[in-house]
TrEMBL record:
Keyword Zinc-finger included in the entry's annotation: no
HTH araC/xylS-type domain sequence ranges: 8-106
Segment forming the signal sequence: none
Keywords tagged on the record: DNA-binding, Transcription, Transcription regulation
Name recorded for this polypeptide: AraC family transcriptional regulator
InterPro entries: AraC_E-bd, Cass2, Homeodomain-like_sf, HTH_AraC, HTH_AraC-typ_CS, MarA-like, Reg_factor_effector_dom_sf, Tscrpt_reg_AraC-type_HTH
Domain of life: Bacteria
Species of the source: Solibacillus palustris
Length: 286
């Protein structure tokens, strides 16, 4: 089964179980990957969290039922996982900008989300420069914070973490500590070690360094086979576009899958706003 087929199988599983309690671990199992990795890839490919997709699909179907049936609103609310009319109305209005009662009266327009279909687009594909590298384990030195992938907290707060690191001098200090194993400042995404918290990630702003410091923590990155992608262009768009291209085009066309260990974004001292800015993405593969 290809990578794209695995993701599509997981989406099909979601669609078949929209009226049930859906655990992210069960969804990820359909894609043959970890809960952390599935949530990360899903967000990269769709620009929404798994939880957002499930909510949008449920609210789409709920609106259709309000229009086409005479079922009571509370009955429809319970059917789609809401235990009160108030919580249902809040979620419903967030998507449709209308209340369930207004939709039933056919006042205004509804916002509908169709089931996702993942596919590879062959039109206008940009070239990708990459290198396969075998690298021994190495140590990183830096600061970390923990974020919730399920709620999209990582997407919202990681840029703020970078703003803070650049403003208070942490980035400059880390550049000074770099040992040359990987040149630059690293953004490192690590699945949470506690299995009970599969929605959580540790995100590091760090550098490769054998040093120890009271101001920073250390983490050992395991020996791996890596695929290193070149990223050219201004941040953050160039980095985000390359991530999407990797998972929608590169992995489907190559005999590798992500290893599930820490992934790296590598930032150089280039001006991040320059169209000539150079950076890298490192993904461990198997």
């Amino acid at each position: 089964m290809t990578w794209i087929q695995s993701i599509q199988q997981a989406i099909t599983y979601i669609e078949k179980n929209l009226l049930e309690e859906i655990a992210i671990e069960d969804i990820a199992r359909e894609a043959h990957c970890s809960a952390f990795h599935f949530q990360r890839v899903f967000s990269i490919l769709t620009n929404m969290t798994v939880a957002d997709y499930i909510r949008k699909r449920r609210m789409t179907l709920a609106a259709q039922e309000l229009i086409s049936t005479d079922e009571k609103i509370i009955t429809i609310a319970l059917k789609y996982g809401y235990d009160s009319p108030e919580s249902f109305t809040k979620a419903f209005r967030k998507q449709h900008q209308l209340s369930p009662s207004e939709v039933r009266k056919q006042e205004g327009t509804i916002t509908s989300y169709l089931p996702l279909t993942i596919h590879v687009s062959l039109k206008g594909a940009e070239p990708m420069n990459y290198q396969i590298i075998d690298k021994d384990s190495f140590q990183i030195l830096g600061s970390k914070r923990t974020y919730n992938c399920k709620t999209g907290e990582n997407t919202k707060n990681i840029p703020l973490f970078w703003d803070e690191a650049n403003a208070n001098g942490i980035s400059e200090l880390l550049f000074q500590q770099n040992d040359g194993v990987i040149d630059g400042i690293l953004g490192v995404c690590v699945a949470h070690a506690d299995y009970a918290h599969t929605d959580m990630i540790d995100y590091w702003i760090a550098t490769s360094s054998t040093a120890h410091s009271d101001s920073f923590e250390t983490l050992t990155i395991p020996a791996s086979k890596w695929v290193k992608f070149e990223v050219h262009g201004a941040m953050p768009d160039a980095m985000q576009n390359t991530w999407k291209q990797i998972y929608s085009e590169w992995f489907p066309a190559h005999p590798y899958t992500p290893a599930g260990t820490p992934e790296l974004e590598v930032y150089t001292e280039d001006d991040p706003s320059s169209p000539d800015c150079y950076s890298e993405i490192w993904i461990p593969i198997k």
